[in-house]
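Lab notes, practical 5.
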Amino acid sequence: MADLEQKLIDTKDCRHRLIVTDGVFSMDGDVAPLLEIVALAEKYDAQIFMDECHSTGFLGKTGRGTDEHCGVQGKIDIINSTLGKALGGATGGYTTGPKAVIDLLRQRSRPYLFSNTLTPSVVGASLEVFKILSASSEKVEKLAANVTQFRSQMTAAGFTISGDDKCPIAPVMLGDARLASEMSDELLARGIYVVGFSFPVVPKGAARIRVQLSAAHSEEQVQRVVDQFIEVGKDLKII
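Output from the prediction step:
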């Protein structure tokens, strides 16, 4: 945040300043510090653009995303997100913002003008997901319970889990690339679908297995994943 403030000070003579950030950073499960970002944007008369592809439907009491999670709804100028993750796993996405910005995108945005249109079935399914989220927070609450169950039990077992405690992206940090590969292979053999990540996808020494929780997982399934991690972790002398 100190670096961001310095950038805003350095550009004080510019007509427009736009702070661009992810809501959730997908590899580490970190959540952007929106309270501080919004405060800086207001102090230096800047605008905020946020990519919510890993947040929409996942974070916030009603699944509205990072701005709801951080308590700054209505203070993000432009939000870009996807229909391809929480909202059905299909294709397409959307941008929200001031009418002038949306009008400009419709006239000048190459992806909008020169892409194939979404199929009616995708549009219909995506609209239905928005209706489901508006009518009930049941799935968001179920996801939150699964995240808490996994993160708390894995931490208690001695694993290091990166990211925000509420984030369903839960990287199990192992450090060594070969270890991450061996562990993910052994878990896959036990019916647990996980993938190891190492350099150059992540920095050297930061190899991990990235677990992604879903509202579709039952409590028993999450428990089985934790139990298998613990068994393999003991076999490999990680814990």
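Observations recorded by the TA: The chain has two domains: 2-135, 138-235. The beta strands are 18-22, 24-25, 30-31, 47-51, 78-82, 93-96, 160-161, 169-175, 196-197, 207-212.
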